[in-house]
Amino acid sequence: MAPPVDPRFTQELRSSGVTLAAVYLGSVPVIESMNSMVSQMRSQVVAECIQHVAATVGQCEAQEINPIVGRIIGDVKEENYVVDLNISAKMVKVIKKNRLIQRHPITYFSFGCRGRGENSNMFGYIAKNKDGTDRRCHVLSSKDAQKLVDTLIAAIDVSIFDAQEKASTSSTPSVTDDGFVRPEVPAEGRIVNLVRQSPVGNHRAVADDVVGKVWFHGHLSRDDAQNLLTMAGDFLVRCRQSDHTSGKFVLSGLTTDGDHKHLILLDHQMRVRTRDHEFNNITELIDYHMANGIAVRTERNAKDQRETSIMLLRPVPAPATVSPSPEPPA
């Protein structure tokens, strides 16, 4: 099984890496391991660090830091200069005028995501330095922040694949003091899932996952869903009311153009997939796209070559906790 990355790109990531231009804004010490936090807290920590650094260097207005996050982060180390960011399957390097100033092995990379709102051109990642100490959130800005994110995710995909290949021939994998056998994919998107359930079993797992989620509305018609979506970025997940369809979980959202979009989230093998990635469950898909500010995209329509995309900005709360039917249709 090969990593889910173009072979030519894979080879580049395994060798010299990919170099992108960015502005290194600064860093913030993080005294608590990401491994001890729930996914929402990880995103909150990185978002607060991005905001804190951006305000310090004058890129945005200062805001009060969440008191919980404030207890686990330190003072900003201001930098604010142009760098080359070299990303490979082994390491992330920050280079200033041909001088290496930061070096973070992928095995010490623990979490990352894009900034929110006015800071959406920024990216923050939490990592330790090459000797496994000094855990910090490093914040950069880029004209193409999404390319930076995509390259880093690809590098981690290759790193995970290579680590698994190596582990298959060794009984003693190396674990860091953060508890990682391999690095986590940034922004909660655990894209690699090597062990898949049967379609029926996978449908049950997806059905169990959405129970009680604020954005899940159970059985809801397309018209009723559209009546609930009033602002661009509003979204919800529902079950199609026609019981004969296997891909019954649907993501409904409102675009900036005022168009209602409806994306089926499960393919014919009951896998949660978008155009770009495959996820273990719907919550993982929602968390990944919200944390990164990335639109959920489908494959281009074969007829008119248009793609459908939905930004996930505000979940529309369900009126009460609902449960889907746990069995797919026969």
TrEMBL record:
One BP term from GO: intracellular signal transduction
One protein family per Pfam: SH2
Domain PID: 17-156
Keywords of the record: SH2 domain
Location of the SH2 domain: 215-316
InterPro entries (alphabetical): PH-like_dom_sf, PID_Shc-like, PTB/PI_dom, SH2, SH2_dom_sf, SHC_SH2
Protein name per Swiss-Prot or TrEMBL: SH2 domain-containing protein
The species this protein was found in: Caenorhabditis latens
